[in-house]
């Protein structure tokens, strides 16, 4: 099969996996490129000068949820350390989870992927986050893990996302096999849009 | 002064409404701008706020209301175009520049704006201020967030809870 038409000129090299041929690398690049932008991706800006008064904590839960829902998952989880008032917020905001968000290299370049050794730690985090958050799952993107190594994990993750009503799911297996079996729960998941 | 004709007032001049802040300052603005507020929209559609009657806003002081209206006036033309499908890239870039500059303010003003946007239900402004606070939180440790948002120093119990959290959610701190 000729995959040359998939090539995107500006894409930088994806970290090659041993035994991956050029066609695979090209197809993976195209896949990473086409992962949709997750909701609530926000830009950086400078902080407002602070006069030492904690006004934000006086805000209604509804407003705090609106704020927290704009943060990436690991940052939301961090706010739950702030105070008891914030602790429940992470769980009360629909989950937006990107495994790429946990890897600095991927945050800088969305089409770059790390080698196998880095992603081994990430798979535990994916499990932890999917297990701890009660749902609903607004958007889950698992595009960094070498799933061939983790068939049991895949089954567990897919059952979690299906049970917790995932709306958007992007799932790119690495390195390649097409014949990776997906749990049937995923196909009966009615919340997927 | 004649009461405004609702709906078909096509005489060239835009229909104006008067809003009255909690400290009794009167603001006259185009109905289209004030209507970005879901809370005010129905009253204005019913013909309220025109002529000598103003719409009292007991929860919003004049400094905050003037800031809110600055936002509404800037965003009203785009909102009138139904989210501005015809807007050029230049228009959109200009609105974005305006928004970034608009929330470059100190926290007491930001807090008043958050409350006003919530009470008046101005969706775009609610998003803008929420995004601003989210940006202030981003990339910081819990202690840094506490300082940025002006939390008091943690009590020993709070400190212990924060440490326990960092252990439990280690992945969130990588």
TrEMBL record, chain A:
Domain called F-box/LRR-repeat protein 15/At3g58940/PEG3-like LRR: residue spans: 155-192
Pfam families linked: F-box (PF00646), LRR_At5g56370 (PF24758)
Superkingdom of this protein's organism: Eukaryota
Domain (F-box): residue spans on this chain: 56-96
Record-given protein name: Uncharacterized protein
Naturally occurring in which organism (per UniProt): Eleusine coracana subsp. coracana
Gene: ga16954
Automatic annotation (TrEMBL), chain B:
Protein's GO biological process: jasmonic acid mediated signaling pathway; protein ubiquitination; ubiquitin-dependent protein catabolic process
S-adenosyl-L-methionine found in the keyword field: no
Keyword Transmembrane among UniProt keywords: no
Keyword line: Ubl conjugation pathway
Gene3D superfamilies: Potassium Channel Kv1.1, Chain A
Residue intervals of the SKP1 component POZ domain: 16-75
Pathway: Protein modification; protein ubiquitination
SKP1 component dimerisation domain segment(s): 124-163
Subunit text: Part of a SCF (SKP1-cullin-F-box) protein ligase complex.
Protein name (database record): SKP1-like protein
SUPFAM superfamilies: POZ domain, Skp1 dimerisation domain-like
Family: Belongs to the SKP1 family.
Function of the molecule: Involved in ubiquitination and subsequent proteasomal degradation of target proteins. Together with CUL1, RBX1 and a F-box protein, it forms a SCF E3 ubiquitin ligase complex. The functional specificity of this complex depends on the type of F-box protein. In the SCF complex, it serves as an adapter that links the F-box protein to CUL1.
